Amino acid sequence: MFDVLNDLDWIGILAGFLAFTLLGGAWFAGIFPAAYHRSLGRDPGARPDPTPLFFAGPPLTCLVITITTAILMAALKIDTYGDALLLGLITGVGYLTANTVNIAINPNFPRPLLYAAISGGYNIVGSLIVSAVLVTL
Fold first, then answer.
1. Helix, strand, coil percentages, rounded to 5, for the chain
2. Of 106, 119, 120, 123, which is least surrounded by CB within 10 A?
3. 1-44 pLDDT, tens digit each
4. Cβ atoms < 10 Å from Cβ of 5
């Protein structure tokens, strides 16, 4: 079932990865920056430290998620938009957002539900976009 690495569309993976990464920048820096900072207990105008991990970490996780989604789509033989979006919703809600909520409910997050809503929403939208891009290309 998982002998699908030769079936992966690396152009689709690259496109999905770029879309997911760009969504992250827009989501956290353009659409919800003040609310995201509030969820972390920071000043709404705070700027993150420009460390290598800050710049490399999110794209690397987007790449892993995109490759994993491509593997699942190939193994499950998903080739329609409806099935792709259903997989995106299932993985976005069932894995990515559920894990985000689990991380957020520890005592280090001053507003865990706000954090979970913002980051979980990003994960759901991103998962849907990745799945749609992968089935398109």
1. 75, 0, 25
2. 106
3. 567 888 899 999 999 999 999 999 999 999 999 999 999 999 88
4. 10
Ranges of each domain in the chain:
5-136
Q: Is the dihedral of CA 69, 70, 75, 79 positive or negative?
A: positive
Torsion, Cα of 55, 62, 32, 100 (10° steps): -110
Which residue type occupies 115? Y
Angle between helices 112-136 and 10-25 (to 10 degrees): 150
User: At which residue do the structure tokens 């990003």 appear?
Assistant: 122
d(CA 5, CA 88): 20
DSSP string, 40-80: TT--TT------HHHHHHHHHHHHHHHHHHHHHHHHTT--S
User: Hey, CA dihedral for 82, 88, 92, 95, is it positive or negative?
Assistant: positive
